[in-house]
Write a structure and sequence with these properties.
Layout (H helix, E strand, L loop, with lengths): L2 E18 L4 E14 L4 E6 L3 H4 L3 H12 L11 H10 L5 H18 L4 H4 L6 E3 L2 E3 L4 H13 L4 E5 L4 H14 L5 E5 L6 H13 L6 E3 L7 H8 L6 E3 L6 H9 L5 E4 L1 H4 L2 H13 L4 E3 L6 H13 L4 E4 L17 E3 L2 E3 L11
Parallel strand pairs: 5-6, 6-7, 7-8, 8-9, 9-10, 10-11, 11-12
Antiparallel strand pairs: 1-2, 2-3, 4-14, 13-14
Helix pairs in contact: 2-4, 3-4, 6-7, 7-8, 8-9, 10-12
The structure holds magnesium ion (MG).
Magnesium ion binds next to loops.
């Protein structure tokens, strides 16, 4: 199954409402779809959304990076040269993790199509139905409360509350949302690096002293401040989830060895794709640490690929934050996975279940 050509296309979709965090505001999704054609007529699809403030990539750098790596892949056989192909994707260019992930996803799509199995089954997974949380964007308190109520009415019972632009207001946000919701709703807080460590401890101790115990606090401080993460972890009851602090396997190792976080957030766009995500999950399993599978604001191919990985390592990745498709105005076409708000079911077709 030799690679004949590798193309990229732009995928654009309006959002239902603007997506806002402490780092950015997004009004339309724009990402890159990778299309690999093999000489046997099979097509594979991958996808990635550049997130300049997190991975340093843009649409332009992604398509150039994919073009650059692709020249080393043309003519290779996905069935017999699989390991070499994955190695080339990761060794010919530094960084550019979302571009690498998009390429890798298309390769995994092809190998599992070729073997006539859904990707999750090829990777050893069994589960096909998953529940995701939904993100509540960072806005004025009233808007965040009404968005939270809307999400609960749609059937979500896990909310990812975006915080991080104003310590005093952030406490009010959590308290007002908590008071407005039924008590069975799980709250995940994500400050997206917006606090310093002292502020984070003060905010969380205030919340905890009010009897509010979120499931976790995600990335309160700047990405490279793992000492800060550990400082906070040792002073509050709420578990810490490392997100922007963990891109690579070696960063994951550092966080686990220094016990700087309770959980790791794995995203294909941060680690460079499925092969690295599986390695990080294995490492976390060896340390008895649970992981979240997260996403960028991306399209259905990236989300579906992430869920195939979750299925493969569901004993370690037991928290799912893959809500990006629910935030799009249009229901995904060409995708046989079923997206029903909080519930997503993978297709049993070969590959990822993407058809164009
Ligand atoms: Mg996050």
């Amino acid at each position: 199954m030799r690679i004949k050509s590798i193309q990229t296309a732009l995928f654009r979709s309006p959002l239902k409402t603007p997506f806002k965090t402490a780092l950015r505001a997004v009004y339309d999704l724009e990402d890159i779809v990778v299309i690999i054609e093999c000489k046997n007529g099979l097509f594979g699809y991958g996808e990635g959304a550049p997130t300049a403030v997190i991975t340093g990539e843009t649409l332009g750098t992604m398509s150039e990076a994919i073009k650059y790596i692709s020249r080393f892949l043309i003519g290779l056989n996905i069935d017999t040269d699989f390991d070499e192909i994955i190695n080339i994707i990761h060794s010919k260019l530094l960084h550019n993790t979302t571009a690498k992930s998009a390429l890798e996803i298309a390769i995994y799509d092809l190998i599992s199509k070729y073997r006539k199995k859904p990707l999750y089954a090829l990777l050893g997974g069994v589960e096909t139905t998953f529940r995701t949380d939904i993100t509540i964007s960072l806005n004025d308190i009233d808007k965040m409360v009404s968005d939270s109520l809307d999400a609960v009415n749609l059937g979500y019972d896990m909310l990812k509350i975006k915080l991080g632009n104003d310590a005093k207001k952030d406490i009010e946000r959590v308290v007002e949302i908590y008071n407005a919701l039924p008590k069975n709703i799980l709250l995940r807080l994500d400050a997206n690096q917006g606090w310093n460590k002292e502020e984070a401890v003060e905010i969380m101790q205030t919340i905890e002293n009010l009897g509010i115990f979120p499931e976790l606090l995600e990335q309160p401080v700047i990405a490279d401040d793992t000492d800060g993460l550990r400082y906070i972890k040792n002073k509050i009851k709420t578990p810490i989830l490392a997100d922007e602090a963990v891109f690579s396997l070696s960063q994951a190792k550092h966080i686990l060895e220094t016990e700087s976080a309770d959980f790791l957030n794995i995203k294909l766009a941060k680690c460079g794709g499925i092969s690295e995500a599986l390695k990080i999950a294995k490492l976390a399993q060896d340390h008895s640490i649970k992981c979240m599978m997260g996403c960028m604001l991306e399209g259905p191919i990236g989300i579906v690929a992430s869920l195939h990985v979750v299925s493969a390592v569901s004993n370690t990745i037991n928290m799912i934050d893959l809500d990006a498709v629910s935030l799009l105005s249009n229901k995904p076409k060409n995708c046989s996975a079923v997206f029903n708000e909080s519930q997503i079911t993978l297709s049993e077709n070969g590959g990822l279940g993407i058809t164009y």
